[in-house]
């Protein structure tokens, strides 16, 4: 076996990046958009803010004992979950419709983490529905802390898709 033959065999056994091999996978513009603005990106701001508000209301209830804050946390957790479901639907449709998004493993990681976050948000809201004042301490507060941490983790992965892979970003600048 010559050195050239050995190099050729090594080159043939290397892993191939399917994104690099298929030029169509570089098309990652949003399919679910309004005037070129991705709906998923517009919707995710709401569950992020409402999840943070839930934690804030829980902390204020713990600090003041004012029933208003427990009720505010109930509403914020419910709205955060519902907006999260809407954002999740838009994101899932994007994932399934756009080959350039679907081909990247980071997209699937973000999807799985986001579904786990939705389950935490749903549990936080559901727990409060039976008695929002009693639900805050300690488990509502713990669920809120966990939800905020998971929101950051999910957002980190979503941001990675946008900034590193240009997912949902128009390549034409329009």
Primary descriptors:
single chain; elongated; 77% helix; 174 residues; 2% strand; 8 helices; two-stranded antiparallel sheet; mainly alpha
**Mean of pLDDT:** 88
Give the uncertain stretches in residue-range form.
none
| Structural class category | mainly alpha
Q: In which range does the helix fraction lie?
A: over 70%
Distance between the termini: 55 Å
Instruction: Using the alpha-carbon principal axes, give the shape.
Output: elongated
For the largest sheet, list the strands in their spatial order: 1-2
Multimer state: single chain
Secondary-structure element pattern, one letter each:
HHEEHHHHHH
Strand content: under 5%
Largest beta-sheet characterization: 2 strands, antiparallel
Number of strands: 2
* Continuous helix count: 8
What radius of gyration results from the CA coordinates?
22 Å
């Amino acid at each position: 076996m010559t050195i050239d033959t050995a190099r050729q065999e090594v080159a043939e056994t290397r892993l191939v990046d399917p994104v690099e091999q298929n030029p169509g996978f570089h098309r990652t513009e949003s399919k679910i958009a309004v005037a070129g603005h991705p709906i998923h990106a517009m919707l995710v701001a709401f569950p992020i803010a409402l999840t943070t508000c839930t934690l804030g209301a829980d902390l204020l209830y713990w600090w003041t004992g004012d029933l208003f804050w427990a009720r505010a946390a109930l509403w914020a957790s419910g709205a955060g979950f519902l907006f999260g479901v809407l954002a999740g639907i838009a994101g899932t449709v994007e994932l399934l419709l756009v080959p350039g998004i679907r081909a990247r493993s980071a997209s699937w990681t973000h999807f799985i983490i986001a579904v786990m976050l939705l389950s935490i948000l749903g549990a936080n809201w559901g727990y409060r529905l039976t008695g929002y004042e009693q639900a805050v301490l300690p488990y509502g507060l713990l669920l809120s802390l966990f939800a905020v941490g998971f929101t950051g983790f999910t957002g980190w992965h979503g941001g990675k898709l946008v900034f590193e892979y240009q997912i949902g970003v128009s390549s034409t600048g329009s």
